[in-house]
Amino acid sequence: MRRLAGVGEDRRDDAAPRDTRRPPQTSRLWHITLSVAGAARPPHEVRRALERLADDHPFLLAGRYAPDHAEIGYWEEARDLHDAAAIALRLWGEHRRSAGLPPWEIVGLEVVGLETYRRRVAEGNGPPPVARAGVRPF
Question: Which helix or strand (DSSP H or E) is residue 76 part of?
Answer without folding.
Answer: strand 69-78
